[in-house]
Write a structure and sequence with these properties.
The protein has helices spanning about 15-20, 30-45, 50-55, 60-80, 130-145, 170, 175-190, 195-220, 220-255, 260-285, 300-310, 315-320, 325-340, 340-360, and strands spanning about 45, 90, 100-105, 115, 120-125, 125-130, 145-155, 165. With about 375 residues, it is mainly alpha-helical.
Amino acid sequence: MRSRPEHHPAPLLPAALLAVLLAGCSHVVYYAQAINGHLEVMRASRPIADVVVDPASDPTLREQLEQVQAIRDFASRELALPENHSYRTYADLERPYVVWNVFAAPEFSLNPLRWCLLMVGCVSYRGYYDRLDAERFAAELRQQGYETFIGGVPAYSTLGHFADPVLSTFLRLGTLEVARTVFHELAHQLVFVPGDTQFNESFATAVENEGMRRWMMVRANPEQRSVFATQRARQAALARLIHAYRKEFAALYASDRTADQKRVNKIRLFAALRGDYADLKASWGGYAGYDAVFDDQLNNARLVALALYSELVPAFETLLAECRQDLPLFYQRVATLAALDADSRRAALTRLLVTASDAGQEPADITADTAGE
């Protein structure tokens, strides 16, 4: 999707990649592109330690990768995230994104189209290593009457099945975004529920947020902390805005109005959303980093994509607070939730959301890889 100047958190897991391991003969072409795409990424990777000591390496790249090594060590040492070979290698992909995800939703629904795949279950997106392939698939879905959105992904996780490399696609975004990405993607290796994208992404975002809080405390100077605090405040404000409008869209689509009446009111709601964003932007002194979210692609599919990271984050952050910020204990509690059946898990998270709401906590993040391009 888009490249947001300010905020580019870790993207969604490309479900196709793991599904191909056991996929059999169905959707051969789709799975083949996932296998080939990932193998190309792995072939391009080199141990970071080798790149750092190579006198032919660009000095700026060497400095960036030394920072990556510190981030990776911090993730395992201070956040109790897996200690393995992931993010110990580097791959220059020579393109802006590693994968492009396609999201789709009906004209009058915020329930996304889902694709069921082995190992990862049913997910709310379909990933392609080639942008043109993603565009062709999105065009097919639009012909079937779905609204679509294509989101560029700078990173992904293979859940520990492979040693995931640091990619040029997120290294280019700066040290803070590298830290966000590494914390987020390593969290997927700890707990992952096949078929529950929102649970997985919200949990990883909560870990990412706590990791960034701790990283900033020990590694950032006062100016960097101030900039980061401003970023988080903007993200939280935008998340609250999107969350409120998702409720209004859901109410409209569930109403007994005719299709024509829904279309008219849908247009009005999107116009109102853009207007409220303009007011929010003005309160930021004209900061335009989120303009891409509100471009001509703003539709149900994009609202679906935006919700994956933010809707359940307050529940997980409430659970972390109940654990007194003890991350190993938090991971155990999350694993217990993950072991529940879908209805029980959702009920438990809903109770945590009520607690978060009573405490005045709102959805806390908007994902960059679903914001626009």
